[in-house]
């Protein structure tokens, strides 16, 4: 039997709004969108859609991975102000790698559950074309400086530490063949294309005007892909199973979620859509890097007093196809209920934004399908993972 969230705090943390931009592709219409403007767009839309008083927001917590150039100078603060929202509201930008905005949700929920805050925005943004992945370590590379210090080297040696190697190591450990990766990737595109055609993303997306055009749909899903096309792609490295087709692409996007206490819901006339039921964050092997969702799922379910069979919808970030495949094998979760509207392989993975994007998708899918419980989990750099379990209300 599920434990009440009252066991974790005197308050409830409600999700009262969740919105995202379309996720843009590396050659799409959003590549020139300034990250602060992307963030401003979803922040303003979140306030408009929920009807919350923006001056009552106590903090804006925004995830962003590559915090340099246009994504520097505390992007949470500049995005909020760029939206024309009240100056009295502070902002902080955080980095837990790919899970940055999922961690933003955790921090926001924890503030509310602790009783120290009542209304907090959790958000995320990343323009991976304007600010390339790895830009935050480029200074060290350009100046011949080590990325890791002596302590790390003593512990892990000088072996390659990368998400690509981690994804390949997972293929080898779980004996995942290239054909299985490609079949999974094809299904991700199929589901995303079908969901878009069915209008499932329409309510969660805040369309963006770019010049004379209005971008109101994700740019990544491909209706024309096939196993035959995937089979023609070279591996990312000789002898590997991984190709670009089974990896998440470079992306652009932003998303924002409003977390409120029961008092704030009543005071501001807000409508709860889900409550944050249970939270977990774990560390795992930093060399494999991407295996964290397995222990994170176990921990959050144990904390909630639930099993995988109780979960109606899973959102598992598809950094690479090997991640959800290995995760499902180890947890026993049903892939039919996992990423039902496609995942990051098709829809994209704008790093710091993806956590909030997935939560937005999860809230809307629970509402659409009438499910009760949703679980979101992501692999993250350093061998970490966040898991968030929500309950529709």
Helical amount: 25-40%
Shape: globular
Distance between the termini: 18 Å
Order of H and E elements: EEHEHEHEHHHHEEHEHEHEHHHEE
Structural class: alpha+beta
Radius of gyration: 20 Å
Unreliable stretches (pLDDT < 50, length at least 5) are 1-9
User: What is the count of β-strands?
Assistant: 12
CATH class of the domain at 13-134 and 249-392: Alpha Beta
**Strand content bin:** 15-25%
Report on the structure:
The chain is an alpha+beta fold and 393 residues long. It has a domain at 13-134 and 249-392: Peroxisomal Thiolase, Chain A, domain 1. It is 34% helix and 19% strand. It is built from 13 helices and 12 strands. The strands form 2 sheets. Strands 1, 2, 3, 4, 5, 8, 9, 10, 11 and 12 form a 10-stranded mixed beta sheet that branches. The two termini are 18 Å apart.
Name some characteristics of this structure.
alpha+beta, 13 helices, two-stranded antiparallel sheet, 393 residues, globular, Peroxisomal Thiolase, Chain A, domain 1
Furnish the topology, listing elements before pairings.
Blueprint: E1 14-20, E2 24-25, H1 35-50, E3 59-63, H2 75-82, E4 91-94, H3 100-113, E5 119-127, H4 138-142, H5 150-156, H6 163-173, H7 178-197, E6 208-210, E7 213-215, H8 227-231, E8 251-260, H9 262-268, E9 274-283, H10 293-304, E10 313-316, H11 322-331, H12 344-347, H13 354-369, E11 373-380, E12 384-392
Parallel strand pairs: 3-4, 3-5, 10-11
Antiparallel strand pairs: 1-8, 1-9, 2-8, 5-8, 6-7, 9-12, 11-12
Helix pairs in contact: 1-2, 3-13, 10-11
């Amino acid at each position: 039997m599920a434990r009440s969230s009252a066991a974790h705090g005197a308050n409830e943390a409600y999700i009262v709004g969740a919105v995202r931009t379309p996720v843009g592709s590396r050659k799409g219409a959003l590549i020139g969108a300034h990250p602060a403007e992307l963030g401003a767009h979803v922040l303003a839309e979140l306030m408009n859609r929920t009807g919350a008083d923006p001056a009552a927001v106590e903090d804006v917590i925004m995830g962003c991975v590559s915090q340099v150039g246009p994504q520097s100078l505390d992007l949470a603060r500049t995005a909020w102000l760029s939206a024309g929202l009240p100056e009295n509201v502070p902002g902080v930008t955080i980095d837990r790698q790919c899970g940055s905005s999922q961690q933003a949700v955790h921090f926001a929920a924890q503030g509310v559950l602790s009783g120290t805050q009542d209304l907090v925005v959790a958000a995320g943004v990343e323009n991976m074309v304007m600010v390339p992945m790895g830009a935050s370590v480029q200074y060290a590379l350009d100046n011949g400086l080590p990325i890791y210090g002596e302590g790390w080297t003593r512990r892990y040696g000088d072996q390659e530490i990368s998400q690509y190697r981690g994804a390949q190591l997972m293929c080898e450990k779980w004996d995942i063949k290239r054909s299985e990766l490609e079949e999974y990737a094809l299904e991700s595109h199929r589901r995303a294309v079908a969901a878009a055609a069915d209008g499932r993303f329409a309510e969660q997306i805040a369309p963006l005007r770019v010049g004379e055009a209005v971008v109101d749909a994700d740019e990544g899903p491909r209706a024309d892909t096939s196993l035959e096309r995937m089979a023609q792609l070279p591996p990312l490295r000789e002898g590997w199973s991984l190709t670009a087709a089974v990896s998440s692409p470079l992306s652009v996007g932003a998303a924002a979620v409003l977390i409120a206490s029961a008092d704030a819901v009543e005071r501001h006339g807000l409508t709860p859509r889900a409550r944050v039921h249970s939270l977990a964050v774990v560390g795992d092997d930093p060399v494999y890097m991407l295996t964290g969702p397995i222990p994170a799922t176990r921990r959050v379910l144990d904390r909630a007093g639930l099993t995988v069979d109780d979960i109606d919808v899973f959102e598992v970030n598809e950094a690479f196809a090997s991640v959800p495949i290995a995760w499902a094998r180890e947890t026993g979760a049903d892939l039919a209920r996992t990423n039902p509207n496609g995942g990051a392989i098709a829809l994209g993975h704008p790093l710091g934004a993806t956590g909030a994007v997935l939560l937005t998708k999860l809230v809307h899918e629970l509402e659409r399908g009438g499910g009760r419980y949703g679980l979101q989990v992501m692999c993250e750099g350093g061998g970490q993972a966040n898991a968030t379990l929500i309950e529709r209300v």
